Amino acid sequence: MRLVIVGPGRAGTALALAASTAGHRVVAVAGRDPEATSVAASALGADALDISDPMPEADLVVVAVRDDAIGEVASAIATAAAAAGPAAIHLSGAVPVSALAPLAAAGMATGSFHPLQTLPDPARGAARLAGAWVAITAGGALRDRLIELAGSIGMHPFDLDDEHKAVYHAAAAAAANFPLGALVMAESLFSAAGVSFAAARPLVETVVANAFELGPRSSLTGPVARGDAGTVESQIRAVAEYAPSLADDFRTLVVVLARIAGATEIEERWS
Ligand SMILES: NC(=O)c1ccc[n+]([C@@H]2O[C@H](COP(=O)([O-])OP(=O)(O)OC[C@H]3O[C@@H](n4cnc5c(N)ncnc54)[C@H](OP(=O)(O)O)[C@@H]3O)[C@@H](O)[C@H]2O)c1
């Protein structure tokens, strides 16, 4: 496929690099910052364009700007994109495909392609796309082409309808971000105990592996899951003594876990 990338940021450039490695051709990169655009374009052997420039012929225009700017950029590029090719996508898991309405009105097939992966920079992102799952919101021939694109990069495609995007994105945030909140807390508590956070790595990695082998609910261990109310109480008192600023958050998470584990006595005691 010939691709035009609009928005040379982390996700757009990561996808472009991965697609290029897989044998697709990135014919142009369009951006509002000339320097960033030309860095990304030269890494891909593509033309560097301004957002308002005409685009070369392409099979797919990828609108890779931040979520809030998708609608505005779609309006700005509508004429050039529709002249360039038949289809356009954005990369958001939260924004509906209707954000590309100006491109649909100009005659393009529209959809979205959301990599369920964290892409911290273009090079790491490109490497992490292989093996990642990707949510495809599109119909007809565009859906088929996006499934092929995903497969060529080594991604696992799945269908997601627009109606479920908000709850899907909440799930992705819960999976990717909520564990980090707990780990930030754990890091502080290990530090209060004089123990390196690095010591927890095998434990944390096993917990994540268990969650995908046994299911997250069945992987719960520890005093809350066992209903060991006395041990939970001594933990809560220790956190209040050694890390008082974390005491409320720790207790809140104990209550959440107790509800999941069905440990009613603990849930009621600390709610
Ligand atoms: N990064 C991830 O982990 C990840 C994962 C999956 C999906 N996504 C999706 O990928 C999309 C892009 O995210 P990102 O993380 O790549 O963001 P990013 O690194 O901030 O890149 C966004 C790009 O869009 C450009 N841009 C922003 N507003 C613009 C505007 N009004 N007009 C023209 N260009 C504009 C930015 O240019 P400037 O530098 O000039 O602002 C930058 O080149 C989002 O829809 C996001 O949800 C991201």
What does this protein structure show overall?
This protein has 2 domains: 2-161, 3-Layer(aba) Sandwich (Rossmann fold); 177-270, N-(1-d-carboxylethyl)-l-norvaline Dehydrogenase, domain 2. It is elongated and about 70 Å long. The termini are far apart. It has 13 helices and 8 strands. α1 (10-21) crosses α5 (122-129), α11 (229-242) runs antiparallel to α12 and α12 (247-261) packs antiparallel against α13 (264-270). It is an alpha/beta fold and 271 residues long. An 8-stranded mixed β-sheet has the order 3-2-1-4-5-6-7-8, with helices on both faces. 54% of the residues lie in helices and 15% in strands. It has helices spanning 10-21, 34-44, 70-84, 101-105, 122-129, 140-153, 165-176, 178-192, 201-214, 223-226, 229-242, 247-261, 264-270, and strands spanning 2-6, 25-31, 47-50, 60-63, 87-90, 109-116, 133-137, 156-159. The structure holds NADP nicotinamide-adenine-dinucleotide phosphate. NADP nicotinamide-adenine-dinucleotide phosphate (NAP) binds next to α1, α3 and β6. Residues 7-12, 31-33, 36, 51, 64-67, 69, 72-73, 90-92, 114-115, 118-119 line the site of NADP nicotinamide-adenine-dinucleotide phosphate (NAP).
